[in-house]
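Quick entry between incubations.
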Amino acid sequence: MKQTGTLYLLPNTISDGGWQNSIPDGVRDQALPIRHFIVENIRTARRYLRKIGFNTDFNEVQFFELNKHTLEQDIPQFLQALKANLDMAIISESGLPCVADPGNIVVALAQQQNIRVVPLVGPSSILMSLMASGFNGQNFAFVGYLPIDNGQKLKALKQLERKIFSENQTQIFIEAPYRNQKLFEFIVQHSQSNVKMCIAKEINGPKEWIKTKTIGEWKKQKADIQKYNTIFLLYK
Amino acid sequence: MKQTGTLYLLPNTISDGGWQNSIPDGVRDQALPIRHFIVENIRTARRYLRKIGFNTDFNEVQFFELNKHTLEQDIPQFLQALKANLDMAIISESGLPCVADPGNIVVALAQQQNIRVVPLVGPSSILMSLMASGFNGQNFAFVGYLPIDNGQKLKALKQLERKIFSENQTQIFIEAPYRNQKLFEFIVQHSQSNVKMCIAKEINGPKEWIKTKTIGEWKKQKADIQKYNTIFLLYK
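Done. Structure below.
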C-alpha cells in the first residue's frame, strides 16, 4: 500500500489569554513542521500559527479554506498533499477542529481513504462547561443550536427536558452570541422551575463566569451574557 | 460575602507518553501552588503531580479520596479549605475531571455554595475520538456504558441506532477494556450494515489507532482492542 501523510487535528485557543494556558507544548511542536493546512479563515489561522511560534515564510505554506463558501466538489483535492506522503493539519477558528465546525467532512474522506488521523489536545468550551457545571458527566449530549422559530424552540426545549429526566442526560447547547439574552429569558420562562441550568460565559478567558442554579433561582438573578461566548447546560 | 478559594478542575494525562503532549504549561503552573486536592486515588495522584513538576513535600499537602468507597456524608467536609479562602483542585485518574468520573458531586456542592469553579484544559478521549471519527461534531451524545445483560444491551443499541437517524446525533460509548472484543462482536452482529462505527484505541499514546468503517466492512476486518482503552462511536 502506498505511504500517505498524517492528518493532524490542531486545536485553537478559545480566549484572548496566552496560548500556553490551552495548547500543550508537545502539540505546538507537532504543528510546527507542517506546511499544508485546512483552515476556516486563512488570515486568522496565520495569526494563530505565528502566535504559537510558527516562523516559516507563509509563501512556503499551503492553505485551503473550508467554510460555508467552500464547494463540496473542491474538498477531495485538499487531501492531495496527504497522498504525496506529506502531513497536513486542520485548524479550527476556535477550540477543537471537527467539534461544532465543518472539519469532519475532510476527516470522513481521510478515514475512507485509510489516511491516518491524529487528534491533538486542546480546549473544548463544551467539555469545560460540563466539568464546571456539576452536572452528569457520565451521560451528556451536545445538540448545537436550538431552532430559531419560537414554536419549534419550545418543542426542542421540552424534548431536552424530557431527556434530562428519562435518560438522566445532561443537555448542552449554544446560541449566536447576540441572541444569548433572548434565549436565556426564553428558557427561564418556559422550563420547569426545578430544572437546573448552568451558564458558562467566556470560558478560559479573563471574564470567565460559570454558574449553576435552578430555573427558579435564575428567575431572580439575570445573567449578563449578551454578545459573550456562552454555553447553556440543563440537568435535573 | 465571605471570600472563598477557587476549585480548579485539573486534567490528568490519558496515555503513557510525556505529559507535555496533553497538559498545557499554563495549566501545570496553575496547579503547582495548590496544597489541597480531591483525587480518586492518592498514590497515583501523587505520582502524576511529581511527573508535572510538583516538588512540595507531600506532608504539607492535603488529599481527599473521592471514589466508590467514599461515604456521601463525608463529601461536604472536603470543601473546608475552600471556605477558609484556600484554593483546591480535583484531579481525575485519567483525562478530564467530572467527565465519566464522580468528581461532579463535589462541583455541584461548590456551585450551590457559590464557590468559583475553574475548569482547566486537558485531554478528553471522548472528544478526541469524535474529532478523528469524521462523524457529526455538531450533535453528539456520550452515554457511558451499555447494559451488561444482552437483551438490554440490544435494546440500548437499537435506541442509539434510532437516534443516529432520527436526531442526526453521533453516539459515543465505552466498555470495560476486558469486555471490548465481546462488545465489538455484539455490535457488528446486531447493527445495520450501513451504520458506521469508529473504533478509537489508546488515544494519545504510542499504540493509538482510530478507524471508521461501516458495520459491513467491520464484518470483514476484526479490531484488536481487547484490554486496550477504547472508545466506540456510531453514526450514519
